Amino acid sequence: MTQTADNAAILQQGTGDTDSAQEPRRNRFKYGSILLSFLLLSLVLTYTLPPLLPPLIHHAPPPWYEEASDIDRTDSYYSQPESTYRSELSDTAAIVRFWPSTGGLLLREHATGIEVDFLGLDRFDNVPRPSPYNATLEDDFCERLERLGATHCEDESDYFGSMMHRTRRYRALLAWPENDTGGTWALVLSAKEWRRTACVHNARTMEERGEMIRRLGGRYFGDWTELRPKLRKALKADRSPGLGPVEGFEDILAEPVPLDTEPS
């Protein structure tokens, strides 16, 4: 009888020891189940809750918010109707447009005060597109805008779309220290290098502008009639970045020179 009681006590003690050994495992399983349930709940809320929030939460729009009826949300900035201004002031500079008789648009974005003066336009007010259209006069203006490195494009949507999608790799800077009677300093830079041109835009005169272009690695060309077709061909070919090097830039694409380099 006593031996049977002892065996029962030993068996009960062994069962208790087994339960104690399995307790951590049961706790890990419990906590793991809770964590898994939490993750599943998070996923469910992530995909189901956001669509339900707008009808439930309403905030009054701030005073500066435009009414939805005043905004054309079916279109983008890059495909808005063409401007009726020849020169239009933006936040920091001007956008200049000319319409050649051969078709398309000649555009210079971020035109500085020096460039606007060079074109003979008003630096302080918008200049409307001339009407009626005079092809001879317009082509003369286009030739002058090309002297500043303007870009040929089909229309404004084409130009700004190419800038947004980075299908233009190069931009040109030109300076005319002696106005139209002498040569020009020219520099063509990639979009990555364009950030270094603030010194050119800060120039107060064409002489300073030419000096800054020279310091950045620009070259001097004495004959505009020789440079013009090369520059036009190169800027036009720049619209096809997948075709490798742009032909025509070999003679005008200069290696940028650091601004701290001693003048030669």
Automatic annotation (TrEMBL):
It comes from the Eukaryota. Keywords: Membrane, Transmembrane, Transmembrane helix. The keyword Transmembrane helix applies. Residues 1-21 have a biased composition (Polar residues). The chain crosses the membrane at residues 34-53. Residues 1-24 are annotated as: Disordered. This is Uncharacterized protein. It comes from Elsinoe australis.
